[in-house]
Amino acid sequence: MNAAIRAVTRAAIYEGWRVFGIYRGWEGLIMGDIKEFTSSSVSNTIQRGGTILKTARSEEFRTPEGRAKAAENIKKFGLDALVVIGGNGSLTGAQLLAREHDICVIGLPGTIDNDLYGTDSTIGYDTALNTIMECVDKIRDTANSHDRIFFVEVMGRDAGFLTQNSAIASGAEAAIIPEDQTDIDQLATFIGRGIRKSKNSSIVLVSEKDGGAMHYAERVRQEYPEYNVKVSILGHLQRGGSPTAYDRILASRLGVASIEALKEGQRNIMVGIKNDQIVYVPISRAIKMDKPIDKELINVLNTLSI
Q: What is the C-alpha separation between 74 and 84, in angstroms, rounded?
C-alpha cells in the first residue's frame, strides 16, 4: 500500500494538486486526522510493508451519522476527491460516502485476497503469495524429514486465489479452497497421492474458511490414524514484509492511473488491471460481483501432484 500512497501523492503533485493523507482510514476521516503530504512525505517508502497511513476499523463510519461527520471533514479540509486504497470493506464504505454525500471517489484494489472483481491482481496479493511459498518451502523440510502430512492454513476469506496458486508454486499435493469444496473421496485421493511410492510426505494448503486446517487435520486423525498429521497456521505472517517487485510496479501504475482518472473526470470507479492494461471498473461492480477462480488451476495442481 505504501507504493500506492507514494504514487498517488507524487502523481498528484506532478499535476500541481495538493495532497492530504488521511490516517487510520475512515476512522481518521471522521476524527479529522488529516495532514498535507509533500513529495518528501513518501520518500523511502516504496520498499516498506504495511501502510504509513495506518489503518483501523470504524464502527461509527458504518452509520449514516458517522459518514456525515466524514463528509463534513472533507468539506472542512477542502478536499475535491478521495483515493481509497483497500478491499471490499473499504470500497463499500467509499461507495456509501459517494452516494450519500456526492463525494468523488476513486478506488484502488488493496487486498492480499485478490477477490475484487474487475482486476487480475490486487495490491499485496503477489507479496503474500511469495511469502506463503517461502514458508511452505521451509515446512516441507520438516515434512520430509519426519514423514508427515502438513495442513497449512492460508488467508483469503471467501476466495481461494492465495491457496490455489501458492499450492502450485510450492509443489503442494493438494489445495482445499471454497470454490472447490473437498469431500471425503477427494481427501482419500490426495492422501493416497502423498504417501505413494516416491513421496514420503504431503503438503496440503487449506483456505481459512469453514474450520480451516484444524478441521481437515482432525478428519485425517479420525479416518486415517496411521498417518502423522501436523498443522501450521501462517496467519498474519502473510500480511507483512517488503513488497515484491511486481507489487511495487502494480501499485505505482494504479496510483498514477488514479490521478489520470480524476483528470478525465471519472467518479466512483476502481482502477484495476486486465491483461496488463489499466481499466476502470464501477465500484459497485467491483464489490458486488463474484470473481471466479480459473478452474484450469485446479486441473494443473491435480495433474502435477501425482
A: 13
Q: Is the pLDDT of residue 109 over 80?
A: yes
Q: Do residues 96 and 135 share a domain?
A: no
Please determine, for residue 196, whether its predicted confidence score (pLDDT) is greater than 60. Answer: no
- The verdict on 75 and 40 lying in the same domain is yes
pLDDT tier, 173 (very low <50, low <70, confident <90, very high otherwise): confident
- Model-level pTM? 0.92
Average pLDDT over residues 77-99: 97
Do 248 and 196 lie in one domain? The reply is no
Query: Is the residue at 301 inside a domain?
Result: no
Catalytic residue check, 113:
yes
Residue among 33, 80, 113, 294 flagged as catalytic? 113
Residue 278 in any domain: the answer is: yes
Q: ∠ CA(49), CA(87), CA(261), 5° rounding?
A: 95
d(CA 266, CA 195): 55
Residue 188: predicted pLDDT? 66
Instruction: With respect to residue 265, please indicate whether it lies within any of the assigned structural domains.
Output: yes
Number of structural domains found in the chain: 2
Radius of gyration of the chain (CA): 22
Max alpha carbon distance in the chain (Å)?
Answer: 70
CATH number of the domain that residue 204 is part of: 3.40.50.460
Domain hosting residue 195, numbered range:
125-240
Q: Is the pLDDT of residue 59 over 80?
A: yes
CA distance 9 to 256: 9
